[in-house]
Structures are given as C-alpha cells and as structure tokens.
C-alpha cells in the first residue's frame, strides 16, 4: 500500500539547466508524425479533408493553417488515421491543437517515467496521468492512451469544454480509460480537484501562455507573419488555432499560472510522482526555477523539444526520491 504521509523534507537539488537544443528541430523518434503526410491516404479515410488541401509555396500538399475549420478537419483526419479515434470534434472557437507537438510532450514524459523504471517505458492501465486543462479537444488523454495505454483524468474549469471532452471519450468507447472532471473553483488548479487517496505517476499541462487578450492577438499576428499569411487584403482569424480566454490567457500570464501550479503542487507532494508543464518561452524559465527552489522540490528536469521551426520545452519536478516514486 502506498504511504500517504507527507514525505520528509530532503535537501533539494539545484534546479537543472535546460538541455542544449538539438542541432536540428526534429520530432521525438517515437512520434508518429515524421516526414510528409500522405494526403491521398488521409483523404481516403477522411474524405472531408479534400476540400481543404492546398499546395504550399514549395509545391507540396498541405492545408491552410490560417483556416480554423481546415485545422479542425485535418486534426480529425490525423486522429482517425494514426490513433484510431473515429469520432472527434470541438465547439467553434475552442483550441484546436497541433497534434505532433502534443505527441512529443507525451513521448518525452514516457522517457522520464522510464528513467524511474530501469529504462523501460511503463505501459498499460496501471499508469495514471493527470491532464490539467484538458480542454474541449481532450488531446493528451487520447494520444497518451493510444500510444501507451495509460489511464487519464482530464480537468478543466470550463463546463462547455468538459461536455465536449466527455462526448469525445464516450463516442470512442474510452470511458474506462479516460475520465474528465471540472475544477469547480476557477481560482484553483490542483486544490479541491483530487481525492486524497488518488495517486498519479505524472501530471501534464499546457498553460495559458498570455497575460491578456491583446497579448494573445499580437502572438497570433507574429505567427501569421512567420507562416507568410500576413496579407493585408485577407481577413484572418483573430486567434490562430482558436481558443477561449481560459485556454490562452490568465492574470499573470504563463509565469503566474505555472508559479501557482508549483505552489499548489507543494501542498500535494505525495499525490503525483512527477508534476510537469509546458513553458512557451525560454525567458520564463528563471522565475519558474526560482519558484521551484522556493517550493523545496527534490529534483527538476527541463526537457527541450523541437517541431520544425518551433522550439518548446517542458519542466518536470518531484518532491519524492526514486524509491518513493517506485511505489507508484
């Protein structure tokens, strides 16, 4: 039986420095989305995708990532072709995430858990994962269960997102593997969400990156320019990939949200073996590392990831030593 007592305070390690970025921004070796997509094959299983396929400036088949409907249909096709998810949809204007990058986060988390398991990735229903802010798309539980067979609990503060995610889970017959619950207090993240007896091997989170709507809109415009979409004659969506307020911005922005997550995790140190969160900007790492040190974490890992031209990273931390984590 797992010891539910708060572990004794141990001398914390100095928060780690980020690993040097790989020479080339490539996906994790286990990521299913390597190379070019076979659009004829995708269209064969998802005929609705045909209406959204275009030729990019290099003459390759792609989709118009400035079109939210195209991104949604593309995601649906990828989930069906690569993960066996037959039914997936989200309400209009909710976050439609890029699947390859989301998959990368899960694969690197699997490597993290393997480090505690003699190098073997733990698979199957005995592994429990907590997805903080699962959103209407429920993407991390869908991918994580498909790739590793893990059990997931997804949380969110938005009732519409909860309803949409629940519909996806039920429509795909995954209710035994994935459950979704609402955080009733919008000012809390972990507190009040978990039963005191619950234990998770890992938690993951895609936090709100921005501090305001205006900041989120400026971020979208930068992405349009990077994609070559900044045509003044063309009316573009205000926010790329959609997204509700709670998905994209919060008071204090990413640093504020992650700092609160760290503080709350310190009050539940024995319930999650490894807490983790994405961090959008490397410049946000120093204050996050400072918050981790103040919280008295025992170990910190910063994992760099790369998808195409984009560099991203996640931070993972634990209050438990390896023997205590092994009890999970």
Automatic annotation (TrEMBL):
<dbReference type="InterPro" id="IPR010286">
    <property type="entry name" value="METTL16/RlmF"/>
</dbReference>
<comment type="similarity">
    <text>Belongs to the methyltransferase superfamily. METTL16/RlmF family.</text>
</comment>
<protein>
    <recommendedName>
        <fullName>Ribosomal RNA large subunit methyltransferase F</fullName>
        <ecNumber>2.1.1.181</ecNumber>
    </recommendedName>
</protein>
<comment type="function">
    <text>Specifically methylates the adenine in position 1618 of 23S rRNA.</text>
</comment>
<dbReference type="InterPro" id="IPR029063">
    <property type="entry name" value="SAM-dependent_MTases_sf"/>
</dbReference>
<dbReference type="Pfam" id="PF05971">
    <property type="entry name" value="Methyltransf_10"/>
</dbReference>
<keyword id="KW-0963">Cytoplasm</keyword>
<keyword id="KW-0808">Transferase</keyword>
<dbReference type="GO" id="GO:0005737">
    <property type="term" value="C:cytoplasm"/>
</dbReference>
<dbReference type="GO" id="GO:0052907">
    <property type="term" value="F:23S rRNA (adenine(1618)-N(6))-methyltransferase activity"/>
</dbReference>
<dbReference type="InterPro" id="IPR016909">
    <property type="entry name" value="rRNA_lsu_MeTfrase_F"/>
</dbReference>
<keyword id="KW-0949">S-adenosyl-L-methionine</keyword>
<keyword id="KW-0489">Methyltransferase</keyword>
<dbReference type="GO" id="GO:0070475">
    <property type="term" value="P:rRNA base methylation"/>
</dbReference>
<keyword id="KW-0698">rRNA processing</keyword>
<feature type="region of interest" description="Disordered">
    <location>
        <begin position="1"/>
        <end position="36"/>
    </location>
</feature>
